[in-house]
Amino acid sequence: MANLKSLAKDTAIYGLSSIVGRFLNYLLVPLYTHYMPKDSGDYGISTNVYAYTALILVLLTFGMETTLFRFANDEKYKSDTVFSTAFATVGSLTAVFLVLIFAFISPISSTLGYAAHPDYLLMMAVVVALDAIQALPFSYLRYQKRAIRFASLKMLFIVLNIALNVIYFVMLGKTSVFYVFFINLLCTGLITFFFLPDMFRIKWQFDGRLLRQMLGYSWPILILGIAGILNQVADKIIFPLVYPDEADANVQLGIYGSCVKIAMIMAMITQAFRYAYEPIVFAKSKDADKTQYYASAMKYFIIFTLLAFLCVMGWMPVLQYIIGADYREGLGVVPIVMAAEIMMGVYFNLSFWYKLIDKTIYGAWFSLAGCAMLLAVNILFIPQYGYWACAWGGVAGYGTAMVLSYIVGQQKNPIPYPVKDIALYVILAGALFCLMQLSEGWPMIASLALNTLLILLFVAFIIKRDMPLASLPIIGKKFKKTK
Question: Among 275, 304, 311, 393, which residue carries the largest CB count within 10 Å?
Answer without folding.
Answer: 393
